[in-house]
Amino acid sequence: MPTYGNILLRQDESGGFETARKVQLGFTDGRNEAWLRDLLAEHPDLLPIEEVDPSFAPLVPLCTELQTEAGPVDAAFISPSGRLTLVECKLWRNPEARRKVIAQILDYARAVSRWSYADLQRQVAAATGRKGNAPFEAARELQPDLDEAAFVDAAARALREGRFLLLIAGDGIREGTSGMAELITRNAAMGFSFGLVEVALYEFGDQGLVVQPRVVAKTETIERTFVHVQSGDSGSLHDISDEGEAESGGESVAVANERAWWEPLTRLSFDDPEQESPLYRPRNHVRVQLPYPGIWITAYRSMGEGICGVFLTGKKSEIPQVLDVLNEEREHILGELPHGTSERQQSAPDRSGFASYARLNEFATDDECRNWLAQQLNHFVNAFRPRLKAMAK
Asked: Which residues contact 246 (CB under 8 A, 6 or more apart)?
């Protein structure tokens, strides 16, 4: 693991230098975890956000000690695009402390992922004493032309999808960082990004203090969705990941055509007024996020197999236990879903999911196919959203 080199301060034009003395956080002048928390909250530019995930930049301080069901988050930030960054400040003394802080920040993220925007607004107001739409007002100080409705919608979507950046900041983060990153990745809900930031302190005698942060480790989330397509007595597993996107940052002609085909469904309004519209995702499907972390409904179209469908799915770490609960009232749920909804085999022979399929040749036009998918999605939302909302609580 690379370490910091010495820092030299040039004293004057004569060429004299003074070597800084590296000091440990927590051992001098009251510079403890609370001191680091307040320092980062007052100077968010210290956090090397561009190196971890630039989509969360720039950071706008929201508050310190943001209360959640899992405990208080040391510092919370938001970007003008509505994405939250949660920071936990810790002194790294031993492997046990490191494991605990990782579990701690994961618990915070899971708790916040269950919030609505109103929950976020209320908790920020409680932490700061600021009334009104405090998150928006904070973001507007950085970006004066920010549109309130667009900001609130974006922040609500980020909360619902768990699009957070989780940062652990402290000193002495040197050993075992790769193992910690792997632990985070295995336990993270979909959409979370992580970074480990070491903050080094140098004293120049009476000249002052230098704070030097650096990114020690970070994780990247690659989301993949698998669709099991059943045709007669045979089935096939299709990986519909984001590989259809062009590496140059644009998108291929095929993906552009697919996006255009699904566009009417991305404007779908559901019976449930709280349900957001579907989001298009390459290749050839849309996703409806549900109020349970890592669980969603997928509608897809497979031209090769000549089939389309809607099914309940989710992150493999979450879907098994969700299905175990739902299958306790399977007959009631099937009674609420469209006639013909079938079982979708999951990871265990005795665990069945919920899916509805149709052949593409059953529809005379693309509009008929989209109308059928829209009806199926609405039924699935009506059946599963209230149940999963109750489970999440």
From this structure: 252, 255
Query: What pLDDT is attached to residue 205?
Result: 66
**What is the sign, positive or negative, of the torsion defined by CA atoms of 305, 309, 312, 314?**
positive
Complete DSSP assignment for 147-163: -HHHHHHHHHHHHHHT-
Residue for token pair 């991305």: 266
Beta strands in the chain (DSSP E): 8-10, 17-19, 21-23, 60-68, 71-78, 84-91, 164-171, 193-203, 209-219, 226-231, 234-239, 279-281, 285-289, 295-302, 307-314, 355-359
Residue 241: both structure tokens together: 């990941």
Determine how β-strand 21-23 pairs with β-strand 17-19. Answer: unpaired
| Beta carbons within 10 angstroms of residue 211's beta carbon | 15
Q: Distance between CA 26 and CA 36 in Å, rounded?
A: 9
Segment 128-152, tens digit of pLDDT: 998 899 999 999 999 999 999 999 9
Pick the closest to residue 197 from 228, 227, 226, 174 (CA basis). 174
